[in-house]
Specification:
alpha+beta; six-stranded mixed beta sheet; 378 residues
Length: 378
Protein backbone atom coordinates (compact mmCIF):
# COMPACT_ATOMS: atom_id res chain seq x y z
CA UNK A 1 0.00 0.00 0.00
CA UNK A 2 1.43 3.37 -0.94
CA UNK A 3 1.54 6.32 1.41
CA UNK A 4 -1.29 8.02 -0.51
CA UNK A 5 -3.74 5.23 0.29
CA UNK A 6 -6.92 6.69 1.83
CA UNK A 7 -7.32 3.57 4.00
CA UNK A 8 -3.83 3.82 5.42
CA UNK A 9 -4.17 7.57 5.98
CA UNK A 10 -7.42 7.18 7.91
CA UNK A 11 -6.09 4.20 9.88
CA UNK A 12 -3.10 6.26 11.01
CA UNK A 13 -5.35 9.16 12.02
CA UNK A 14 -7.39 6.76 14.15
CA UNK A 15 -4.40 5.02 15.72
CA UNK A 16 -2.84 8.29 16.89
CA UNK A 17 -5.87 8.90 19.11
CA UNK A 18 -5.33 7.14 22.44
CA UNK A 19 -8.88 5.86 22.68
CA UNK A 20 -8.44 3.50 25.63
CA UNK A 21 -11.84 2.05 26.51
CA UNK A 22 -14.32 3.64 26.89
CA UNK A 23 -12.82 7.00 25.80
CA UNK A 24 -13.34 7.54 22.07
CA UNK A 25 -10.89 10.48 21.87
CA UNK A 26 -12.52 11.87 18.73
CA UNK A 27 -12.21 8.73 16.57
CA UNK A 28 -15.92 8.61 15.89
CA UNK A 29 -15.98 12.25 14.84
CA UNK A 30 -13.34 11.47 12.22
CA UNK A 31 -15.55 8.71 10.84
CA UNK A 32 -18.74 10.78 11.06
CA UNK A 33 -17.19 13.66 9.13
CA UNK A 34 -16.24 11.30 6.30
CA UNK A 35 -19.59 9.50 6.25
CA UNK A 36 -21.68 12.69 6.29
CA UNK A 37 -19.72 14.01 3.31
CA UNK A 38 -20.88 11.07 1.22
CA UNK A 39 -24.51 11.31 2.25
CA UNK A 40 -24.93 9.27 5.44
CA UNK A 41 -27.47 10.38 8.01
CA UNK A 42 -25.84 10.07 11.45
CA UNK A 43 -27.48 9.59 14.85
CA UNK A 44 -25.27 9.90 17.91
CA UNK A 45 -26.27 7.51 20.68
CA UNK A 46 -24.26 8.20 23.83
CA UNK A 47 -25.09 6.03 26.83
CA UNK A 48 -23.53 7.10 30.13
CA UNK A 49 -19.76 7.47 29.44
CA UNK A 50 -19.83 5.62 26.11
CA UNK A 51 -19.95 7.15 22.62
CA UNK A 52 -21.90 5.31 19.93
CA UNK A 53 -23.30 6.26 16.57
CA UNK A 54 -25.58 4.86 13.90
CA UNK A 55 -25.13 6.06 10.32
CA UNK A 56 -27.30 5.06 7.38
CA UNK A 57 -27.30 5.76 3.64
CA UNK A 58 -30.55 5.12 1.78
CA UNK A 59 -34.16 5.24 2.89
CA UNK A 60 -35.72 1.82 2.45
CA UNK A 61 -35.01 -1.83 1.88
CA UNK A 62 -32.77 -4.34 3.66
CA UNK A 63 -29.85 -2.97 5.68
CA UNK A 64 -26.24 -4.03 5.27
CA UNK A 65 -24.27 -2.82 8.30
CA UNK A 66 -20.62 -2.48 9.21
CA UNK A 67 -20.11 -2.76 12.97
CA UNK A 68 -17.02 -2.04 15.02
CA UNK A 69 -15.39 -0.32 17.96
CA UNK A 70 -13.07 2.65 18.31
CA UNK A 71 -11.87 1.77 21.82
CA UNK A 72 -8.63 -0.12 22.42
CA UNK A 73 -7.05 -1.95 25.33
CA UNK A 74 -4.34 -0.15 27.35
CA UNK A 75 -0.90 -0.14 25.73
CA UNK A 76 1.09 -0.84 28.91
CA UNK A 77 4.54 0.69 29.47
CA UNK A 78 5.51 2.74 26.41
CA UNK A 79 9.13 1.67 26.84
CA UNK A 80 8.17 -1.91 25.96
CA UNK A 81 7.16 -0.79 22.46
CA UNK A 82 9.61 -0.38 19.60
CA UNK A 83 7.78 2.84 18.71
CA UNK A 84 5.20 4.78 20.69
CA UNK A 85 1.89 2.88 20.74
CA UNK A 86 -0.10 5.97 19.79
CA UNK A 87 2.35 7.28 17.23
CA UNK A 88 1.41 5.32 14.08
CA UNK A 89 4.59 4.06 12.45
CA UNK A 90 5.16 2.14 9.23
CA UNK A 91 7.99 -0.40 9.24
CA UNK A 92 8.59 -3.17 6.73
CA UNK A 93 5.15 -2.87 5.18
CA UNK A 94 3.27 -2.90 8.49
CA UNK A 95 1.42 -0.18 10.38
CA UNK A 96 2.39 -0.31 14.08
CA UNK A 97 0.31 1.11 16.91
CA UNK A 98 -2.29 0.14 19.48
CA UNK A 99 -5.52 -0.66 17.69
CA UNK A 100 -3.96 -0.98 14.24
CA UNK A 101 -5.24 -4.56 13.95
CA UNK A 102 -7.99 -4.44 16.58
CA UNK A 103 -9.74 -2.75 14.95
CA UNK A 104 -8.93 0.70 13.59
CA UNK A 105 -7.52 -0.71 10.36
CA UNK A 106 -10.86 -2.38 9.71
CA UNK A 107 -12.76 0.82 10.53
CA UNK A 108 -10.69 2.73 7.99
CA UNK A 109 -11.29 0.02 5.38
CA UNK A 110 -15.06 0.14 6.04
CA UNK A 111 -15.24 3.91 5.59
CA UNK A 112 -13.10 4.00 2.45
CA UNK A 113 -14.93 1.01 0.91
CA UNK A 114 -18.24 2.81 1.48
CA UNK A 115 -16.90 6.06 0.02
CA UNK A 116 -15.66 4.27 -3.08
CA UNK A 117 -18.92 2.37 -3.54
CA UNK A 118 -21.03 5.51 -3.20
CA UNK A 119 -18.80 7.51 -5.53
CA UNK A 120 -19.94 5.13 -8.27
CA UNK A 121 -23.45 4.36 -7.06
CA UNK A 122 -25.02 7.12 -4.96
CA UNK A 123 -28.44 5.56 -5.57
CA UNK A 124 -28.69 1.88 -4.67
CA UNK A 125 -31.21 -0.71 -3.49
CA UNK A 126 -31.35 -1.24 0.26
CA UNK A 127 -29.46 0.70 2.91
CA UNK A 128 -25.81 0.88 3.92
CA UNK A 129 -25.14 1.48 7.61
CA UNK A 130 -22.54 1.77 10.37
CA UNK A 131 -22.90 0.80 14.05
CA UNK A 132 -19.87 2.05 15.98
CA UNK A 133 -19.18 1.97 19.72
CA UNK A 134 -16.41 2.83 22.18
CA UNK A 135 -17.41 0.09 24.64
CA UNK A 136 -16.25 -3.24 23.22
CA UNK A 137 -12.96 -3.79 25.03
CA UNK A 138 -14.46 -2.86 28.40
CA UNK A 139 -17.62 -3.88 30.21
CA UNK A 140 -19.69 -3.75 26.98
CA UNK A 141 -22.86 -2.60 28.74
CA UNK A 142 -23.46 0.77 27.10
CA UNK A 143 -22.34 0.08 23.55
CA UNK A 144 -23.58 -2.26 20.84
CA UNK A 145 -26.01 -4.08 23.13
CA UNK A 146 -27.90 -0.83 23.84
CA UNK A 147 -27.69 0.42 20.26
CA UNK A 148 -29.25 -2.85 19.07
CA UNK A 149 -32.14 -2.36 21.48
CA UNK A 150 -32.59 1.17 20.07
CA UNK A 151 -32.48 -0.14 16.50
CA UNK A 152 -35.14 -2.71 17.35
CA UNK A 153 -37.39 0.04 18.69
CA UNK A 154 -36.86 2.00 15.45
CA UNK A 155 -37.48 -1.08 13.27
CA UNK A 156 -33.94 -0.77 11.90
CA UNK A 157 -32.48 -4.21 12.57
CA UNK A 158 -29.94 -5.01 9.81
CA UNK A 159 -30.42 -8.04 7.61
CA UNK A 160 -26.65 -8.45 7.20
CA UNK A 161 -23.75 -7.27 9.34
CA UNK A 162 -19.97 -7.53 9.14
CA UNK A 163 -18.04 -6.91 12.36
CA UNK A 164 -14.48 -5.84 11.56
CA UNK A 165 -12.77 -7.98 14.18
CA UNK A 166 -9.36 -9.38 13.16
CA UNK A 167 -10.50 -12.80 11.99
CA UNK A 168 -7.60 -13.97 9.81
CA UNK A 169 -5.16 -16.55 11.18
CA UNK A 170 -2.10 -17.12 8.97
CA UNK A 171 -2.80 -14.97 5.90
CA UNK A 172 -5.42 -12.35 5.20
CA UNK A 173 -8.80 -13.82 4.32
CA UNK A 174 -8.08 -17.40 5.36
CA UNK A 175 -10.83 -17.36 8.02
CA UNK A 176 -14.33 -15.97 8.45
CA UNK A 177 -15.87 -16.06 11.90
CA UNK A 178 -19.49 -17.06 11.29
CA UNK A 179 -20.26 -17.76 14.94
CA UNK A 180 -18.85 -17.67 18.44
CA UNK A 181 -19.05 -19.85 21.51
CA UNK A 182 -20.95 -18.64 24.54
CA UNK A 183 -19.08 -17.34 27.57
CA UNK A 184 -20.21 -18.14 31.14
CA UNK A 185 -18.13 -17.20 34.17
CA UNK A 186 -18.48 -18.06 37.85
CA UNK A 187 -17.07 -16.70 41.09
CA UNK A 188 -17.15 -19.69 43.45
CA UNK A 189 -16.61 -19.04 47.15
CA UNK A 190 -15.95 -22.07 49.36
CA UNK A 191 -16.33 -21.58 53.10
CA UNK A 192 -14.04 -23.08 55.72
CA UNK A 193 -12.91 -22.25 59.24
CA UNK A 194 -9.72 -20.27 59.78
CA UNK A 195 -7.22 -21.63 62.24
CA UNK A 196 -3.62 -22.43 63.14
CA UNK A 197 -1.92 -24.97 60.91
CA UNK A 198 -0.71 -26.79 64.04
CA UNK A 199 -4.32 -27.44 65.11
CA UNK A 200 -6.09 -28.58 61.93
CA UNK A 201 -8.76 -30.39 63.93
CA UNK A 202 -9.98 -26.98 65.11
CA UNK A 203 -10.24 -25.60 61.57
CA UNK A 204 -11.61 -26.54 58.15
CA UNK A 205 -9.30 -25.91 55.22
CA UNK A 206 -11.37 -24.87 52.17
CA UNK A 207 -8.47 -25.67 49.85
CA UNK A 208 -8.41 -29.26 51.02
CA UNK A 209 -12.21 -29.47 51.02
CA UNK A 210 -12.49 -28.31 47.43
CA UNK A 211 -9.68 -30.21 45.72
CA UNK A 212 -11.73 -33.27 44.76
CA UNK A 213 -14.65 -31.17 43.52
CA UNK A 214 -12.43 -28.95 41.38
CA UNK A 215 -10.78 -32.04 39.95
CA UNK A 216 -14.23 -33.39 39.02
CA UNK A 217 -15.07 -30.14 37.25
CA UNK A 218 -11.77 -30.17 35.36
CA UNK A 219 -12.29 -33.70 34.09
CA UNK A 220 -16.00 -33.46 33.32
CA UNK A 221 -16.97 -33.93 29.66
CA UNK A 222 -19.53 -31.22 29.05
CA UNK A 223 -20.40 -32.09 25.46
CA UNK A 224 -18.88 -33.34 22.20
CA UNK A 225 -19.35 -30.18 20.20
CA UNK A 226 -20.70 -30.49 16.66
CA UNK A 227 -19.83 -29.71 13.04
CA UNK A 228 -19.68 -25.99 13.82
CA UNK A 229 -18.46 -25.80 17.42
CA UNK A 230 -15.63 -27.51 19.31
CA UNK A 231 -16.53 -29.20 22.62
CA UNK A 232 -17.35 -26.92 25.52
CA UNK A 233 -14.25 -26.02 27.53
CA UNK A 234 -13.89 -25.37 31.27
CA UNK A 235 -10.95 -23.36 32.57
CA UNK A 236 -10.03 -22.19 36.07
CA UNK A 237 -8.49 -18.73 35.75
CA UNK A 238 -7.89 -17.68 39.38
CA UNK A 239 -7.62 -19.29 42.82
CA UNK A 240 -7.20 -17.16 45.92
CA UNK A 241 -7.08 -18.04 49.62
CA UNK A 242 -5.16 -17.31 52.77
CA UNK A 243 -3.71 -14.36 54.64
CA UNK A 244 -0.23 -14.61 53.15
CA UNK A 245 1.08 -16.31 56.28
CA UNK A 246 2.31 -19.90 56.11
CA UNK A 247 0.92 -20.85 59.53
CA UNK A 248 -2.72 -19.85 59.02
CA UNK A 249 -5.38 -22.13 57.56
CA UNK A 250 -7.57 -19.93 55.34
CA UNK A 251 -11.20 -19.34 56.19
CA UNK A 252 -12.41 -19.22 52.60
CA UNK A 253 -11.32 -19.95 49.04
CA UNK A 254 -12.32 -18.04 45.93
CA UNK A 255 -12.18 -19.73 42.53
CA UNK A 256 -12.87 -18.01 39.21
CA UNK A 257 -13.67 -20.21 36.24
CA UNK A 258 -15.12 -19.84 32.76
CA UNK A 259 -16.98 -21.95 30.23
CA UNK A 260 -16.67 -21.33 26.51
CA UNK A 261 -19.66 -23.36 25.41
CA UNK A 262 -21.16 -24.68 22.22
CA UNK A 263 -24.81 -24.67 21.24
CA UNK A 264 -25.07 -28.27 22.42
CA UNK A 265 -25.65 -26.98 25.97
CA UNK A 266 -27.24 -23.95 27.57
CA UNK A 267 -25.95 -21.71 30.33
CA UNK A 268 -28.68 -23.08 32.60
CA UNK A 269 -27.52 -26.64 31.84
CA UNK A 270 -23.96 -25.78 32.85
CA UNK A 271 -24.99 -24.05 36.07
CA UNK A 272 -27.12 -27.03 37.06
CA UNK A 273 -24.38 -29.55 36.30
CA UNK A 274 -21.80 -27.59 38.28
CA UNK A 275 -24.20 -27.51 41.22
CA UNK A 276 -24.70 -31.27 40.99
CA UNK A 277 -20.95 -31.88 41.09
CA UNK A 278 -20.33 -29.47 43.96
CA UNK A 279 -23.21 -30.85 46.01
CA UNK A 280 -21.57 -34.28 46.03
CA UNK A 281 -18.86 -32.87 48.29
CA UNK A 282 -19.15 -31.84 51.92
CA UNK A 283 -18.53 -28.10 52.03
CA UNK A 284 -20.49 -24.89 52.05
CA UNK A 285 -20.22 -22.67 49.01
CA UNK A 286 -21.84 -19.86 47.05
CA UNK A 287 -21.69 -19.35 43.27
CA UNK A 288 -22.05 -16.02 41.47
CA UNK A 289 -22.65 -16.49 37.73
CA UNK A 290 -22.17 -14.06 34.84
CA UNK A 291 -23.29 -14.82 31.29
CA UNK A 292 -21.49 -12.47 28.88
CA UNK A 293 -22.65 -14.04 25.64
CA UNK A 294 -24.74 -16.83 24.17
CA UNK A 295 -23.36 -18.98 21.35
CA UNK A 296 -24.51 -17.98 17.88
CA UNK A 297 -24.09 -19.28 14.34
CA UNK A 298 -24.71 -17.73 10.94
CA UNK A 299 -24.99 -20.69 8.54
CA UNK A 300 -24.54 -20.67 4.80
CA UNK A 301 -26.79 -18.06 3.22
CA UNK A 302 -26.69 -14.64 1.59
CA UNK A 303 -23.98 -13.07 3.75
CA UNK A 304 -21.73 -16.08 4.25
CA UNK A 305 -21.93 -17.17 0.61
CA UNK A 306 -21.29 -13.65 -0.70
CA UNK A 307 -18.30 -13.14 1.60
CA UNK A 308 -16.79 -16.51 0.74
CA UNK A 309 -17.10 -15.71 -2.97
CA UNK A 310 -15.60 -12.23 -2.62
CA UNK A 311 -12.64 -13.51 -0.59
CA UNK A 312 -12.06 -16.41 -2.97
CA UNK A 313 -12.01 -14.02 -5.91
CA UNK A 314 -9.62 -11.67 -4.09
CA UNK A 315 -7.06 -14.10 -2.64
CA UNK A 316 -7.53 -17.21 -4.74
CA UNK A 317 -8.36 -19.52 -1.83
CA UNK A 318 -11.65 -20.39 -0.18
CA UNK A 319 -11.73 -19.20 3.44
CA UNK A 320 -12.50 -21.46 6.38
CA UNK A 321 -15.62 -20.85 8.46
CA UNK A 322 -14.79 -20.81 12.17
CA UNK A 323 -16.47 -20.27 15.55
CA UNK A 324 -13.22 -20.35 17.56
CA UNK A 325 -11.83 -17.52 19.66
CA UNK A 326 -13.24 -15.17 22.25
CA UNK A 327 -16.40 -13.10 22.30
CA UNK A 328 -17.13 -10.01 20.22
CA UNK A 329 -19.99 -7.55 19.84
CA UNK A 330 -21.47 -9.91 17.24
CA UNK A 331 -23.01 -11.68 20.25
CA UNK A 332 -25.34 -8.71 20.69
CA UNK A 333 -26.26 -8.47 17.00
CA UNK A 334 -27.03 -12.09 16.08
CA UNK A 335 -29.87 -12.59 18.61
CA UNK A 336 -31.92 -9.94 16.81
CA UNK A 337 -32.07 -12.19 13.73
CA UNK A 338 -29.26 -10.52 11.77
CA UNK A 339 -26.92 -12.59 9.61
CA UNK A 340 -23.58 -11.60 11.14
CA UNK A 341 -19.96 -12.54 10.49
CA UNK A 342 -16.55 -11.21 11.51
CA UNK A 343 -14.03 -10.35 8.82
CA UNK A 344 -10.81 -8.46 9.31
CA UNK A 345 -6.99 -8.67 9.23
CA UNK A 346 -4.65 -11.04 11.05
CA UNK A 347 -5.20 -11.46 14.78
CA UNK A 348 -1.61 -12.50 15.60
CA UNK A 349 -0.56 -9.28 17.36
CA UNK A 350 -3.82 -8.02 18.86
CA UNK A 351 -3.57 -6.86 22.50
CA UNK A 352 0.22 -7.36 22.31
CA UNK A 353 3.16 -5.00 22.47
CA UNK A 354 4.02 -3.78 18.95
CA UNK A 355 0.54 -4.54 17.62
CA UNK A 356 0.59 -4.16 13.85
CA UNK A 357 -1.25 -4.80 10.61
CA UNK A 358 0.00 -5.36 7.08
CA UNK A 359 -0.63 -2.29 4.93
CA UNK A 360 -1.17 -4.57 1.91
CA UNK A 361 -3.82 -6.47 3.88
CA UNK A 362 -5.64 -3.21 4.60
CA UNK A 363 -5.76 -2.53 0.89
CA UNK A 364 -7.20 -6.01 0.20
CA UNK A 365 -9.66 -5.69 3.06
CA UNK A 366 -10.96 -2.43 1.60
CA UNK A 367 -11.44 -4.08 -1.79
CA UNK A 368 -13.23 -7.08 -0.29
CA UNK A 369 -15.54 -4.89 1.81
CA UNK A 370 -16.40 -2.87 -1.29
CA UNK A 371 -17.10 -6.02 -3.28
CA UNK A 372 -19.44 -7.33 -0.59
CA UNK A 373 -21.37 -4.05 -0.50
CA UNK A 374 -21.72 -4.11 -4.28
CA UNK A 375 -23.08 -7.66 -4.33
CA UNK A 376 -25.55 -7.23 -1.49
CA UNK A 377 -26.80 -3.75 -2.45
CA UNK A 378 -27.27 -4.13 -6.18
Amino acid sequence: MNSNSPTLTLAMELVERASVTPDDKGCQQLMIDRLEKCGFSVTRLPFENVDNFWAVHGHEGPIFCFAGHTDVVPAGPEGDWTSSPFKPTIRDGHLYGRGSADMKGSLAAMVVASEQFLSRQQSHPGRLAFLITSDEEGVAKNGTVRVMDWLEQQDLIPRWCIVGEPSSSAVFGDTIKNGRRGSLSCRLTISGIQGHVAYPHLAANPIHLSTAALNDLIHEKWDDGNDFFPPTSFQISNINAGTGASNVIPGSLEVLFNFRFSNEVTADDLCARVKTILDKHSFAYSAEWHLSGQPFLTPAGELVDTTVQCLTDAIGNKPVLSTAGGTSDARFIAPKGTQVIELGPLNKTIHRVDENVSTADLEQLTEVYQSIISKLLS
